TrEMBL record:
Region (Disordered): 1-21, 129-159
Protein name per the record: Endonuclease I family protein
Biased composition (Basic and acidic residues): 148-159
Superkingdom classification of source: Bacteria
Keyword Hydrolase: yes
InterPro entries listed in its UniProt record: Endonuclease-I, His-Me_finger_sf
Keyword set, alphabetical order: Endonuclease, Hydrolase, Nuclease
A single GO molecular function term of this UniProt record: endonuclease activity
SUPFAM superfamilies documented for this protein: His-Me finger endonucleases (SSF54060)
């Protein structure tokens, strides 16, 4: 099990990568940039078990005002960190890149990668299901600001950039060279296979909702626990350099 950090405020301490972390990617664009970032974030990674994810999320998503609580994704509300599981009104582990979009399940690897796992209310998680991300639909009564239609889920405005950068990270990180499926972001919704959309919408969200202090600090904590960073939090402009 992961060792929980001592209780304390989770204000961003640095939100900066280690010196030289991205040096080999500087000046690259397009497929060359994506390939180099893949190599950077695939080196020296600590792979968590699915049980360790419970402890990890209590650190990555701790409430800055109360470290005994986590901030629920899609809602932005605090919930006791210890109250997790499968019961109604507990929190569980939301895979932003849906497990069925690649059939990777919860085995160590993409199914336990903290960069796309977030604590969510159980029934809100169920409402999102395995939908792609796009705009439109009917508002979720339990999570105002989130919308669902037949083939997509639209998160509230404060989470749109977080979703985009997590999905883009997964597409860049898992390229089929490590025994896991080659995950690819695309511009469709309602598709099948190891693909997730909608790319054009995600790029818009990345630009409209830049990384918050919470998201930047979260990237630092994931780096401490897992040994790699999400480059699109450190350099949001790289998303357009690759997919724009």
């Amino acid at each position: 099990m992961l060792a929980l950090a001592p209780a304390g405020p989770t204000s961003p301490a640095s939100a900066e990568p280690p010196a030289g972390y991205y040096d080999s990617a500087e000046g690259l664009t397009g497929a060359a940039l994506e390939a180099e970032l893949h190599d950077i974030v695939s080196a020296g990674v600590t792979t968590l078990t699915y049980s360790e994810v419970w402890d990890g999320l209590q650190q990555t998503d701790a409430d800055p005002d109360d470290p005994s609580s986590v901030v629920l994704f899609y809602q932005g509300t605090a919930h006791p960190a210890s109250d997790h599981g499968g019961g109604v009104d507990q929190w569980n582990r939301e895979h932003l890149w849906a497990q069925s979009h690649g059939d990777f399940g919860t085995s160590p690897g993409p199914g336990t990668d903290l960069h796309h796992l977030r604590p969510t209310d159980v029934t809100v998680n169920s409402a999102r299901g395995n939908l792609d991300f796009d705009e439109g639909g009917t508002e979720n009564a339990e999570a105002p600001g989130n919308y669902r239609d037949g083939d997509s889920w639209e998160p509230r405005d404060a989470d749109k950039g977080d979703v985009a950068r997590a999905i883009l990270y997964m597409s860049m990180r898992y390229e089929g060279d490590d025994g896991w499926p080659d995950l690819e972001v695309d511009d469709a919704t309602g598709g099948s296979g190891p693909r997730h959309g909608r790319l054009s919408t995600l790029l818009g969200w990345n630009a409209a909702d830049p990384p918050s202090a919470f998201e930047q600090h979260r990237n630092d904590v994931v780096f401490e626990l897992q040994g790699n960073r999400n480059p699109f939090i450190d350099h949001p402009e790289w998303a357009d350099e690759i997919w724009g």
